[in-house]
Every structure is written in structure tokens, then in C-alpha cells.
């Protein structure tokens, strides 16, 4: 498995993107009922505020450094160079490698329009990819009967990987609740669905290197995301500073 290092006392998985791809596909091939979280600043702050959500992250097989600040914190405070491993980048990489290995995938969440566009792109670019199924659940809590039917449908399709896009933290809670019930490796990739579908643009590489993705998404959806990015990002800086100073005061090497 991938080595993990602490960031704000949460264990973040480390390694090259290719190592993440290989590890995830091996979890899928083993039909391991495991799940993968892609940790950004918002997710880490939520884990500090909510012990139940913190447990969700602690139980994940892989917690990828999705956000640039998270990857930077891993590298800076643990003497190990770590690149950002974002869900938006890993989704197409996993689909490409799954097609090569003959493994199957399932897309769960978001809207039917987005799912159809994803399937169309995958069939066009990766004709060998086995798409076991797709499903857009209703935007409301499911009844126990509905949930059981969806679990049965996913298991009947028998995918190696289940990509989940329900939004954070709903998708992470959903994966944790279905661990042991769904016989596949589940990945909470959220915003990667509309980007892969070609229905939402992503910033160019140079802007991503400057950590500007949050500003771009805030510009697109200011009413929904202003609190997440302005308030949550500030709280993350506060938590990092407090943790760093606390360790310095104890005369120890900082391990954030």
C-alpha cells in the first residue's frame, strides 16, 4: 500500500500518480470493498470540526492529496517530496489503465446528462473500456429499500471501480456507509465528472501550479462556494499555524 504521512493529524497517502493508479486498480481487481478519498482543504477542515467525518477519512484505504496546499504540507513538514494527486487527473488515468487491463468501471451520481456525456467520451477515446453501468440517484435521501436495490444493481454489474460523484462530504459518507456492502473499490471524485464530460472547463496547468483553482470555482459559483473557500481556507491557515507553533514550542520537529 501507499505510505501515509500526517497532516493535521490525518493520514495522507503519498507516492507518484502512477503508484496511486496501480494501487487503486489492484484494490478493484481484488474486489476489495475499500474506498478512496481525495482530500482538499475543505475536507481536512471538515474533519477537524466533525469527529464522525474524521473517522470516515481514517477508515479510507487511500486519502489522496487532491489539493495543492495538502500536497505541499505533506512534503514540507515530512521531508518527502509529494506531488498533487487530484481526482480530476486520476479519473482519466484510471479509465485509460482500466481499459488496458480489462477492468470494468461504474459511474454513480451527478445528473443523467453528465453521465451520458462521460460515457460518450469514454467510448470515443477508450473503446476497450468496460463500462459496467451508470446511475444518477435522486437528489434526496434514499429509502432503505431504494438503497438496497441500488447496492444490488451495482454488485450485479460487478465493476472493479465505482466512481462516486455526490459532492463532499456526502460522497465520502456514502462510501463509508457502503463499505462491506459494495464489492468494488469506490472513489469519491465529485467535480471530476462534469470536467471529464466536457461540460465544465478546468484551469490551465500554469494556473493550477499557482493554486488558483479555488478562485476559479468561486468565480463560477460564488453563492454556493464563498463560505467554503474564503472562510474554510482561512481556518485551514489558522489550524496549520497553530499546530506548527505548538510543535515548535515543544522543541520538536514540526510534523503537521
Automatic annotation (TrEMBL):
Highest taxon of the lineage: Bacteria
Molecular function terms, GO-annotated: hexosyltransferase activity
Coiled-coil ranges from the UniProt annotation: none
Pfam families the UniProt entry points to: Glyco_tran_WecG
Keywords: Glycosyltransferase, Transferase
Protein name: WecB/TagA/CpsF family glycosyltransferase
Organism name: Hymenobacter jejuensis
Amino acid at each position: 500500500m501507499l505510505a501515509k504521512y500526517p497532516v493535521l493529524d490525518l493520514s495522507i497517502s503519498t507516492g507518484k500518480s502512477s503508484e496511486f493508479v496501480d494501487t487503486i486498480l489492484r484494490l478493484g481487481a481484488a474486489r476489495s470493498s475499500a474506498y478512496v478519498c481525495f482530500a482538499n482543504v475543505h475536507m481536512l477542515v471538515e474533519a477537524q470540526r466533525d469527529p464522525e467525518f474524521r473517522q470516515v477519512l481514517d477508515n479510507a484505504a487511500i486519502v489522496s492529496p487532491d489539493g495543492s496546499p495538502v500536497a505541499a504540507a505533506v512534503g514540507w513538514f515530512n521531508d518527502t517530496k509529494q506531488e498533487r494527486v487530484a481526482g480530476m487527473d486520476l479519473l482519466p488515468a484510471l479509465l485509460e489503465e482500466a481499459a488496458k487491463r480489462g477492468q470494468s468501471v461504474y459511474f454513480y451520481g451527478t445528473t443523467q446528462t453528465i453521465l451520458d456525456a462521460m460515457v460518450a467520451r469514454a467510448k470515443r477515446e477508450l473503446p476497450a473500456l468496460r463500462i459496467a453501468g451508470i446511475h444518477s440517484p435522486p437528489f434526496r435521501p434514499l429509502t432503505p429499500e431504494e438503497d438496497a436495490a441500488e447496492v444490488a444493481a451495482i454488485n450485479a454489474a460487478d465493476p472493479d471501480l465505482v466512481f462516486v460523484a455526490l459532492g463532499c462530504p456526502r460522497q465520502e459518507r456514502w462510501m463509508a456507509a457502503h463499505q462491506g456492502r459494495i464489492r468494488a473499490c469506490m472513489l469519491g471524485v465529485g467535480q471530476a465528472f462534469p470536467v471529464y464530460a466536457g461540460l465544465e472547463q478546468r484551469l490551465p496547468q500554469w494556473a493550477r501550479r499557482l493554486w488558483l483553482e479555488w478562485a476559479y470555482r468561486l468565480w463560477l459559483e460564488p453563492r454556493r462556494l464563498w463560505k467554503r473557500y474564503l472562510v474554510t481556507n482561512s481556518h485551514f491557515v489558522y489550524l496549520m499555524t497553530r499546530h506548527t507553533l505548538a510543535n515548535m514550542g515543544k522543541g520538536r520537529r514540526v510534523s503537521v
